Amino acid sequence: MPIYHTLGSIPPKRHTQFRKPDGTLYAEELVSTEGFSSLYSLVYHTYPPTIVKALGEPYSVEPKIAREKHLKHTSLIGFNIEPVDDYLQSRKPVLVNADLHISLAAPRKSMTDYFYKNSQADEVIFIHVGSGTLKTGFGKIRFEYGDYLVVPRGTIYQLEFDTPDNRLFIVESFSPIRSPKRYRNAYGQLMEHSPYCERDIKRPTDLETHDEKGDFKILIKKQGLIYPYIYGTHPFDFIGWDGFHYPWAFSIHDFEPITGRLHQPPPVHQTFEGNNFVICSFVPRKFDYHPLSIPAPYNHSNVDSDEVLYYVDGDFMSRKSVVKGQITLHPGGIPHGPAPGSVEKSIGKEFTDELAVMIDPFRPLMLTEDAVRIEDENYYKSWVI
Ligand SMILES: [Fe+2]
Fold first, then answer.
1. What is the pLDDT of residue 155?
2. I need a surface site. Which of 105, 131, 170, 226 has the fewest CB within 10 A?
3. Tens digit of pLDDT for each residue in 1-28?
4. Strand partners, 218
5. Which residues are near ligand 1, the ion (C-beta closer than 5 Å)?
6. Residues 6 or more apart whose Cβ sits within 8 Å of residue 192
């Protein structure tokens, strides 16, 4: 996130001697997602982050593809994904392509006996149900319903949940997640027309330095495999850090909608972007106020992208009988639009309380075995009058 942040103790000059009270050196590490070409931070560890004691046997968590090519409007009933105690095992990839993986998860338990690091993708974890704390070496972030947790690749983390009742919608992005470029000025600051600004960004707080030696299990994801590593020091041993690269959060409830006299196009809802996809937030807002306006969206054929909607809450104006946690996938190439009757019904309405996350990937998505298990097979006929 392009806001400079610092926590804990750091030396006045980078790459210089920075010593512990006992006279030995702290270990400096540069962390980034695009080499030396983009955002980075400098981290100061109590011990070098390199002390590997043992390696476990890697295992695959590669999505199993059930439908590689398709041209069918599809709906998945997301809350039919079974809750699972363990966080990593609870994550079920449902829609995937070479740019992103979309997963659903209903973890019941906090991560206590291992840490996790995704070395191949940034993660956006949308909290649909539940609350808790994201714990990292950078500090902690409290999260609650509606938060997007943005965890850059390479960040070691644990999730601590307040209760066993959790529902997560997770995007793994193989390119860095960023705010849309058109929202930022040449210096990276979010501009006046952006639907959110720096004050809305939750940054890590409460840095706790774990000066601990022992056996620390870190499960590292790379190229579809989980590599179990045993490190000799606690991964949250940061004494301090500074820079622009760190986990952060943004609440969908802080997204300020852009409205107009006539129906506004999807880009006004854009929240984040990665290479070849965008993430948008549909939030409660006043409807269009031209005297003859039609608030329901027009039919459209999204020729250049698939369109994924994840329904979070509220009454969806374009479709009845939508349930929380439902996903619709409208593939590029064939038109879709409001359900029968909903155009007339929308006329004269002044407000919508719909809440949803939309993802438009510019390359087609594949469906996994977990996706077809929770599919509403008749969805494609839902426009029949
Ligand atoms: Fe659409």
1. 98
2. 131
3. 679 999 999 999 999 999 999 999 999 9
4. 115, 229
5. 307
6. none
Give the distance (Å) from ligand 1 centre to CA of residue 339: 11
Q: Is the Cβ–Cβ distance between 200 and 99 less than 8 Å?
A: no
Cα of 336 vs centre of ligand 1, distance in Å, is 6
Residue 165: both structure tokens together = 């009742």
Residue 380 to residues 291, 331, 336, 368, Cα–Cα distance (Å): 33, 11, 10, 18
CA of 78 to the centre of ligand 1 (A): 19
372 has pLDDT over 90: yes
d(CA 330, CA 34): 32
Considering only CA atoms, which of 266, 342, 263, 354 is closest in space to residue 305?
Answer: 266
Distance 376 CA to ligand 1 centre (A): 18
Closest CA relative to residue 237, chosen from 1, 32, 8: 8
- How many Å lie between the centroid of ligand 1 and the Cα of residue 364? 15
pLDDT in tens, 243-277: 999 999 999 999 999 999 999 999 999 999 999 99
CA of 318 relative to ligand 1 center, distance in Å: 10
How far is CA 159 from each of CA 205, 208, 298, rounded to the nearest angstrom? Answer: 15, 16, 41
375 CA to centre of ligand 1 in angstroms: 19
In the prediction, which pLDDT does 253 show? 98
Residue 339: closest CA among 281, 385, 283, 286? 385
Ligand 1 center to 211 CA (angstroms): 51
Distance 300 CA to ligand 1 centre (A): 6
Lowest mean pLDDT among 61-75, 192-206, 208-222, 305-319: 305-319
| Gap from CA of 255 to ligand 1 centroid (Å) | 20
What is the distance in A from the centroid of ligand 1 to the CA of 329?
A: 9
